[in-house]
Design goal:
Alpha-Beta Plaits; about 40% helix; 4 domains; 6-stranded parallel beta sheet; 17 helices; disordered N terminus; about 475 residues; binds magnesium ion; 4-stranded antiparallel beta sheet
Length: about 475
């Protein structure tokens, strides 16, 4: 590293070289400033001016990578003020990240100080500037080995864990983060996607969502996912676990089941109630949705019980059946963002068409009730839309719109939704029966439909703009 020239100071110079070498290899505590290490080693030695000059030359001939952390009260202009100094010393930015929590800034910059630039004056200038700005500052030298490891680990396994609930508590976070670390994943980023909460004006049915980006060297994601899903039974939260990919924030089509997903009822049960056969039909519906009965068989059986119901009674349901919580906000936002939407339903076309007109849905496929002499015949006038057909229709719509299935979100609650949930890039069991919840990759059981916006990367504050404020249709 440096030539040996003067015997009287050879030992000191060799020590300096050794320290530099070890420092570069990361063999000293990385938290300890380099200068402290030098002083520690040179204690009780009579280092000459020449020794120190030699040490300085060694420092000047190597590029140094240093992590600089700043923290303190946030306000405009901090980054530009600090970057101005880095620019003076021709520093290269290797990585940078910042977070602001409750008006407190945490800024980290990984820099490479080029050969020929002195680090000490840079450090001194930054310390003075940080003091003027009332910021704390910390320098951590990064060894070549540690830097290479950081570069190599860019391609490792990355996932997004979204924790959703009415509130997110420290206990929930502690339990989830403990599971993440036990499975050898690191949390790289944490962000709150839901809006700011007021302590005084508590909002009923408020949403809370925290998004964690995690990474790991090995793919033990299945075991971690299973453990995180267990937490959704322990706490009143939902957890979505997605592989981080380009598709995650670029979904383009969202397909919904209708009954008990977009609306808070099973229309066939409501029709049966109007016809006086409510209990018989409800029992069959519940069993079919739990996956205990073949859908087509149970559907045919239930429909036959509606025979003789006057068609003029169908509109009675249009204004009594409620939309699911958050349905209007979700769909109006999706449309604003250019998503295509579809209803793929094992229910009935008359209700699907009503929702299409009300919400502006692009596609509706459901069962057409056969009507003769103004009464229901108890049969359908078209092919029955069962689970297999829903998946086929979803694939057909995606192909027609030239959308990859990876960019499709499917949402449903029943066993007949599983085929479409399974072929979609993101299949979400919404307030679903246990079998469906267990079989789907994602489940939302505690929040409304609009919480799906968090899963496609939309934050509440993204929508806090006039053009995104939807008007309720009632
Ligand atoms: Mg359903």
């Amino acid at each position: 590293m440096c030539d040996k020239e003067q015997p009287a100071t050879v030992q000191v110079a060799e020590d300096a070289e050794r320290i530099l070498f070890e420092w570069c290899r990361g063999e000293h505590g990385r938290g300890r400033p380099f200068q402290d290490q030098v002083l520690l080693t040179f204690r009780n030695r009579m280092a000459t001016v020449w020794d120190l000059s030699r040490l300085l030359i060694c420092l000047l001939t190597m590029n140094r990578v240093v992590l600089i952390n700043f923290s303190g009260g946030d306000r405009p202009g901090l980054t530009s003020s600090l970057a101005e100094i880095l620019a003076t010393y021709r520093v290269r930015i290797l990585d940078i990240g910042q977070a602001v929590v409750h008006e407190t800034l945490t800024l980290a910059i990984l820099v490479e100080v080029p050969a020929g630039e002195e680090f000490t004056p840079l450090k001194k200038d930054l310390i003075v500037r940080a003091h003027d700005l009332d910021l704390k500052i910390k320098f951590t030298p990064v060894s070549e080995e540690a830097f290479d490891h950081w570069v190599r680990s860019q391609g490792k396994f990355r996932f997004i864990v979204s924790v959703l609930g009415r509130v997110v508590t420290a206990e929930q976070l502690a339990t989830a983060s403990s599971a993440i670390s036990r499975h050898a994943f690191n949390i790289d980023r944490i962000e709150r996607l839901s809006g700011r909460l007021s302590l005084t004006g508590r909002v009923e049915n408020a949403n809370a969502c925290i998004e964690l980006e995690i990474s790991g060297e090995g793919d033990s994601s299945s075991a971690l996912r299973a453990e995180l899903m267990e937490l959704t039974h322990q706490f009143e939260i939902d957890i979505a676990f997605q592989r981080e990919s380009i598709y995650r924030r670029n979904r383009r089509l969202v397909a919904f089941d209708m009954d008990s997903t977009l609306i808070q009822a099973e229309v066939i049960d409501e029709l049966a109630r109007l016809h006086g056969v409510g209990e018989q039909v409800s029992a069959i519906t519940a069993s079919a949705m739990r996956g205990e009965l073949d859908f087509k068989h149970s559907f045919t059986k239930r429909l036959s019980l509606l025979r003789g119901l006057p068609a003029m009674r169908l509109p009675e349901l249009l204004h009594t059946v409620q939309l699911a919580d958050g349905a209007e906000r979700l769909i109006s936002t999706l449309k604003m963002l250019g998503y295509k939407t579809a209803i793929l339903s094992g229910g009935f076309t008359f209700f699907g068409k009503h929702l299409q007109a009300r919400l502006g849905i692009d596609y509706v496929f459901a069962n057409e009730l056969e009507i003769e002499n103004d009464v229901l015949t108890g049969r359908v006038a078209s092919e029955i839309v069962d689970g297999k057909k829903k998946a086929e229709l979803l694939a057909t719509i995606a192909a027609r719109e030239d959308i990859s299935l990876d960019q499709v979100v499917a949402v449903g609650d029943g066993a007949n939704d599983l085929p479409m949930l399974n072929i979609a890039g993101m299949g979400i069991a919404f307030h679903a029966k246990p079998l469906v919840r267990k079989s789907a990759n994602h489940a939302v059981s505690h929040l409304g439909l609009d919480s799906i916006l968090y899963l496609i990367g939309v934050r509440d504050r993204d929508l806090d703009r006039p053009e995104f404020r939807f008007s309720s249709a009632g």
